Task: inverse folding
């Protein structure tokens, strides 16, 4: 889908600049963008009565973005030096650059039903590759609630206040140079072990090579050259930062079981998950998102819950 966005910086917009993005009826903005938020306490996002707020970076520039529905679409207001760049990326953030052509939801009744029920959920293109790298590394080998707590503490302590009239506590995550120089006690105080903190520092040294105009395959290739980043982390980054429709998080502790249970009623391993997803080659991340949206929290428990150390990924 091609969406034309017109900027009007001289209007009565609240932001330094704003756009109105035409959107199709039924677009689920909250669920589409919500996949990018790392827990309900993520200091770079705020769900407020006057809209969805997001503090981010475009290049080296900070920006605050607010999304709110208006007749015919979504209005995006932006504050800060990165405003124009963020507004040009607004259609991607809303999932409007997500091309679902060729997606054969009908190949399995569970997928078809999920697509009918949640067809308004698109694959968002977050655009901030570096911050996505950090969050993905923090989520390696630990449960999500702990990774989200680490992200919240580190961004709150070392990020910068979001520009403009942002909700209280909204922060822009630090740039690579700050992550590269965080002292060890800051990492440990946030519950981040040496393996993950060292991986973030190694990635920060080559962060200039990770940018949003790369293809998912090329970004993944570059990420995999960093020691400590594997296929799971690369897929997390390409799926969230670039809206990669085919990314599969191989090595996840729970995703294969979710896919197996949803599609066959039985558990699956990584090989089984890839086999089950093969009919949707090119759209495997789309299937995963639909199954997570529909079935997450409903999957039966298999034995004791995993403790706070999951397989290396």
Result:
């Amino acid at each position: 889908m091609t969406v034309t966005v017109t900027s009007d910086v001289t209007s009565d917009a609240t932001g330094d600049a704003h756009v109105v993005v035409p959107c199709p009826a039924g677009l689920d903005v909250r669920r589409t963008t919500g996949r990018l938020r790392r827990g309900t306490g993520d200091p770079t996002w705020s769900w407020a009565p006057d809209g969805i707020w997001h503090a981010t970076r475009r290049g080296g520039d900070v920006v605050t973005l607010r999304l709110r529905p208006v007749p015919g679409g979504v209005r995006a207001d932006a504050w800060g030096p990165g405003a124009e760049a963020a507004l040009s990326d607004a259609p991607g953030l809303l999932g409007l650059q997500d091309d679902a052509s060729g997606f054969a939801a009908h190949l399995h009744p569970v997928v078809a039903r999920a697509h009918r029920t949640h067809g308004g959920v698109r694959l968002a293109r977050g655009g901030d590759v570096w911050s996505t790298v950090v969050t993905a590394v923090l989520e390696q080998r630990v449960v999500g609630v702990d990774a989200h707590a680490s992200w919240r503490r580190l961004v709150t302590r070392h990020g910068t206040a979001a520009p403009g009239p942002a909700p209280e506590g909204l922060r822009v995550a630090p740039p690579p140079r700050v992550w590269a120089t965080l002292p060890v006690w800051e990492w440990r105080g946030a519950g981040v072990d040496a393996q993950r903190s060292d991986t973030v520092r190694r990635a920060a040294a080559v962060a200039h090579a990770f940018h949003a105009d790369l293809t998912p395959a090329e970004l993944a290739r570059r990420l995999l050259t960093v020691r400590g980043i594997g296929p799971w982390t690369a897929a997390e980054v390409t799926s969230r930062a670039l809206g990669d429709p085919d990314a599969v998080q191989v090595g996840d502790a729970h995703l294969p079981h979710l896919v197996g249970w949803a599609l066959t009623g039985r558990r699956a391993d990584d090989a089984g998950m890839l086999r089950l997803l093969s009919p949707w080659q090119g759209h495997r991340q789309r299937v995963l998102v639909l199954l997570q949206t529909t079935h997450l929290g409903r999957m039966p428990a298999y034995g004791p819950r995993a403790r706070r150390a999951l397989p290396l990924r």
Observations:
- The radius of gyration is 19 Å.
- The beta strands are 6-7, 17-22, 45-48, 51-58, 61-70, 73-79, 160-161, 171-172.
- The CA atoms of residues 180 and 205 lie 7 Å apart.
